[in-house]
Design a protein that fits this description.
Number of strands: 0
Structural class: little secondary structure
Number of helices: 0
Strand content: under 5%
Distance between the termini: 50 Å
Oligomer: single chain
Shape: flat
């Protein structure tokens, strides 16, 4: 197995990303190998399944709080 050492200089003047979804990767530059780690731990010591989720998390009533980050209206 060989070791390669790469030095990069990347300058981005403008980047527009139309959309990202779960498990998306935006890579700029070189990466020799991406390995995934998927570990499942029961750190709470739970012994029973979680209760069923409620719609909107509060019985169907939309939340009345404003977002912490101002969001654009979808187009």
């Amino acid at each position: 197995m060989s070791n390669y050492y790469i030095q990069q200089s990347i300058q981005i003047q403008f980047i527009k990303i139309g959309g990202m979804s779960n498990s998306s990767i935006l890579q700029i530059g070189t990466c020799g190998q991406i390995t995934t780690n998927d570990f499942l731990y029961n750190t709470g010591g739970y012994t029973e399944p979680a209760p069923e989720a409620e719609k909107n998390g509060n019985g169907g009533t939309p939340p009345s709080v404003s977002p912490l980050v101002p969001l654009q209206t979808p187009r």
